[in-house]
Amino acid sequence: MADLESQLAGNLDALDRRIRAAAERAGRSPNEVTLVVVTKYAPDAAVQLLPRLGRLDLGENRPQQLVRRADLVPEARWHLIGRLQTNKVRMVLPHTVLTHSVDSPKLLERLSQTSGDLGCTSAVLLEVNISGEASKQGFDPEQVRAAWQSYLTLPNLEIRGLMTMAPFTDQPEDARPVFRQLRELRDDLRDRAGSLVERHPVRDLSMGMSGDFEVAIEEGATLIRVGSAVFENIPQ
Ligand SMILES: *Cc1c(COP(=O)(O)O)cnc(C)c1O
């Protein structure tokens, strides 16, 4: 166990240094960036060590796995970062602090409705398909702009910002225009939220993964979702 813990602590320290350096390059405070540790490829034993290492923001892409792991590590704040079907909303919502991957008006409406039923307010990000790839989930940017006022008036929701996935490539710089466009879209939507900005901060940008989080931070990410870089050399 000690080996696993020290390996994990070493990986996280290295990651923290890279996060800090990227923030400094961009003239930002590293405190503006929250590392969401994506645990989908990690064994339970490693996930259970994370709170001890000061890591409380954890992400899963599958609702069922999130619920199971929220039970295993209840002191963590669990983020849902992957596809959510409307029939899983009721199951996962009570365990989730932030749903990053709201990819359709239908899902947004269901989250609003179910939050009302449960007597809570749910924090969400709208996933936007900036790159326009057919394989990617998410709102079309023009769709969000056009329907923005109707989203803002849905009850029991707090729209905290936007999320995107960059195109899959081994060149982090390829992601920069995508991240920049997400930031510009957020700025525009926040400007147009009017007084509803008190209910919907529209501040967060969830962008950047192991291969491109430094570029994402330079372009304004407030939440980065990192899995493989955290669990490098961790035995399964
Ligand atoms: C798996 C996953 C990540 C983390 O990817 P890594 O490249 O392992 O850091 C981030 N976001 C989403 C939506 C994911 O599914």
TrEMBL record:
Give start and end of each Alanine racemase N-terminal domain. Answer: 11-231
Q: Does the keyword Nucleus apply?
A: no
Q: What GO molecular functions are on record for this protein?
A: pyridoxal phosphate binding
Which residues does this entry mark as bearing N6-(pyridoxal phosphate)lysine?
A: K40
- In this entry, which stretches build a coiled coil? none
Cofactor(s) for this protein?
Answer: pyridoxal 5'-phosphate
> Keyword DNA-binding: yes or no?
no
Alphabetically sorted, this entry's keywords are: Pyridoxal phosphate
- CDD domains hit by this protein: PLPDE_III_YBL036c_like
Its job: Pyridoxal 5'-phosphate (PLP)-binding protein, which is involved in PLP homeostasis.
NCBIfam families per the UniProt record, alphabetical:
YggS family pyridoxal phosphate-dependent enzyme
What family is this?
A: Belongs to the pyridoxal phosphate-binding protein YggS/PROSC family.
HAMAP family listed in its UniProt record: PLP_homeostasis
Instruction: State the name under which the record lists this protein.
Output: Pyridoxal phosphate homeostasis protein
